[in-house]
Amino acid sequence: MQTLFLQGPSVTLRTLVLVIASIGLMVLDHRGSQLEVVRNTLTYALYPLQYTIDLPIRLYYWGDETLSTHKTLLNEKRRLEDFQLLNKVRLQKLDILEKENRRLRKLLHATPKTGEKILIAEIINVDINPYRQLTVINKGSNDEVYISQPIIDAQGVIGQTIHVNANSSTAMLITDASHALPVQVDRTGLRAVAFGTGKIEHLDLRHIPHNADIRIGDTLITSGLGGRFPANYPVAVITHIERSPDEAFVSVDAEPLALLDRSREVLLVWHNQPQTELSGDDEP
Amino acid sequence: MNPNTRIVVLTMIAAFMLAMMPLPEWAKAFRPDWVTLFLIYWTMALPASIGVTIAWSIGLMLDVSHGALLGQHALGLVLVIYIIHSQHQRLRVASLLQQAIVIFFLLLLKQGLVLWVSGIMGHAPDSWLYFMPSLTSALFWPWAYIILRDLRRKFAYKTNY
Question: Is residue A176 in a domain?
Answer without folding.
Answer: yes
